Amino acid sequence: MVVFLPYVWLMLFFVVPFVIVLKISFADVDLAIPPYTPLMQWTENNVLAIKLNFNNYEFLFTDKLYLNAFLNSIKVAFISTLLCLLVGYPMAYGIARAKPSTRNVLLLLVILPFWTSLLLRVYAWIGLLKANGVINNVLISLGIIHDPLTMLYTPFAMYVGIVYSYLPFLILPLYANLEKMDWTLLEAAEDLGCRPWQAFYKITLPLSRNGILAGSMLVFIPAVGEFVIPALLGGPNALMIGRILWDEFFSNRAWPVASAVAILLLILLVPFMMWYQSIQARESAGAR
Amino acid sequence: MNQRRSIFIISCLAFGYAFLYIPILSMVVFSFNASKLVTVWDSANSPTLKWYYSLLNNEEILDAAWISLKVAVINASGSVILGTLAGFALSRFTNFRGRFTLNAMATAPLVMPEVITGLSLLLLFVAMEQLIGWPAGRGITTMTMSHMTFSMAYVTVVVQSRLATFDTALEEAAMDLGAKPLKVFFVITMPIIFPAILSGWLLAFTLSWDDLVISSFTSGPGSSTLPMVVFSKVRLGVSPEINVLATLTISAVTLIIVGVSLWMARASRIEKAPA
Description:
heterodimer, A: 288 residues, 2 domains, two-stranded antiparallel ribbon, 13 helices, 73% helix, B: 275 residues, MetI-like fold
């Protein structure tokens, strides 16, 4: 019973939907409600005819727009993950090495923005980055620049938004990993003549590998399919696959094409998800 | 610690926290700005509460907030039940058929891009309506069910990690003394994992309250949630009322989170103290 209820729920609302998406990705666009053709039909002789339509996939591979969007999403997600690591690693490290009492406060300060609305936090950057926004006003009043910089609706704005929104997801698993670290190892290395950077590179970094990977996956995977941030900060040229899927669905009402995009995106991401799960399994096995 | 290294770490922390908090603070400050230009400070008439009044009289936003609140409360309560069951099953029964599948299904929504979840759930609801006539149309019910599907994953993780550090001897003792499994759960297990259940509830509430993408796919006419209204406003640019909304959200979240963590810190001190 304990197993049964969540099991059935997840089967019905998580697994079955993907089967339906897969099915509809093979259907044709139709001017009907719902807007796609049925896949299976009973013919006159009571034979079940199944018509698979590969046009949607063919279309996705021939139209440069989709391929570019896929590649661009991976690029954006990858760079954002690296930037998150660059900002987040020293933070997680600093929190893990702080005094236990300060540590809780610092941790709470990382978690707090995560609890406030993502949409509102992304919105805050519009106010900061726009032509007569806070950053430009400050720079102009300080006399550093004379004309406002164009920052909003550029790739730069999109990266800032993604790094800003996903930073807590990277810091938390990394902190959880670094917290368990045996710092006497570092002291030993330094006593034996290792320079601090060398000790970091040879000991801390390899030992925190699982934390780095888990945090990076938590940033990378959702960032590939991100919709809100490119839509609000990225401007019209920000080709992200999540946005394409959204537009195909809501603007073009091309449900089968949107489904095909979703299936391809899923195929792309499943290896990363499985990798993440195996890291998690290793991490919790190591903890015991 | 080495002096140079600690200076480096402290400046990294300072930079990181500034990065996290400057946008939030800027929204709070400019929510008191009188100017309609939002980011241009009108020092003659500011600070003012005029946008606070105008937000509280904005029917569209209030209606949407009411819908969001209903969805979030039902979702949080439902996901806590499902998530606790799943977390319990995963941490207590290490060997049952389908454990692997349950584990994979329970954690996959954590990283699944929202556009995929949203689209797939919508297509499920459409197919169900065609087949069995339920749910008829889309609205609060369909939104709540889809929110529960991804929120329960978070509750599962929270409850599972709490149960991992749980001393099962307590449960065994109660059972040796003749308590039935169900009674053991409610008298022993529940109170001990209560902090995890509470954080799970709050987390599920927040996720639902904040969700834009999945709601947009699974909502119907007349059931726009707060994030959907905010998104359509923000697409047109900055708006002073949104700054007010952000300030109110941030204040509420800060109060609740700080309150709950203080309470939990006290509870865990009591737990750890020698009897």
